[in-house]
Amino acid sequence: MTIRLIATDLDGTLLRSDLSVSERTRRALNRARAAGIHTVPVTARQPHGVKMIAEQAGFNEYALCGNGAHGVHLGTGERLFEAHVTQAAQRALAEALSAQLPDVLFVSVRDGGTTFVAQQGYAEIAHFEDHKRDPSTMGSAELAEVLALPSLKFIVRHATLTPRELLAQVQALNLSGFAATHSGAPFLEILAEGVSKAWGLARLCDRLGIDASEVLAFGDALNDAEMLSWAGRGVAMANAEEEALAAADEVTLSNDQDGLAAVLERLLA
């Protein structure tokens, strides 16, 4: 099997629990790049969150952000593509879910991930680690303002319900026009209909002339499952959630044990 592109999730996969990139992992990525293999972060993070670790990992080329909703070039800043949740879809979801859960809160991520419009009360329950963003900069908008424009990612959060519990609530509404997932962060992530990490990765590979069979993918969470299944070789971390484990072709060591590096070392030996 020839590998031409390595697609990797960041949090819980490439990054250790302290959000660092180990020296071992950096060496393995450097060896892959030296062999002419593209190394692409595929993450729920927005570009500013990717750039926080790009230098540590040596990423200076393509990145797929917002769970595959938009592709960027980290070096040039070029936006390769974007897919937005429509106003109609997010309004229908917000109205229906709020009727069931009056305390649910919403955020609209726009403008290539640079604009973050949070509903009143959201900042009070958020932490920097949630979005790699200071809660004091999130603002406090009326719901109408949150819903006023399409979103690259539409965030749904509740102070006490988990993302899985919120996902069950959303699925029970039986609405269409969007995709729902979560990345391990304390909120549900709503994307444009049909969008996933696999969708974004397929678009990038079409651009680069790379077949799915030539892709090696790593992940650990529900939002990685479709990518792990789509790639020619999907690898789940030992710390992965059940959906990622089920979708993967193999399981490696955990993120804190440099599981990604272990696979690359064998591949490049």
TrEMBL record:
PROSITE patterns, per database record: COF_2 (PS01229)
GO CC annotation terms, alphabetical: cytosol
Q: Name one GO molecular function term.
A: phosphatase activity
Query: What's the superkingdom here?
Result: Bacteria
Record's Pfam families? Hydrolase_3
What's the protein called, per UniProt? Answer: HAD family phosphatase
Q: What is the lineage of its organism?
A: Bacteria, Thermotogati, Deinococcota, Deinococci, Deinococcales
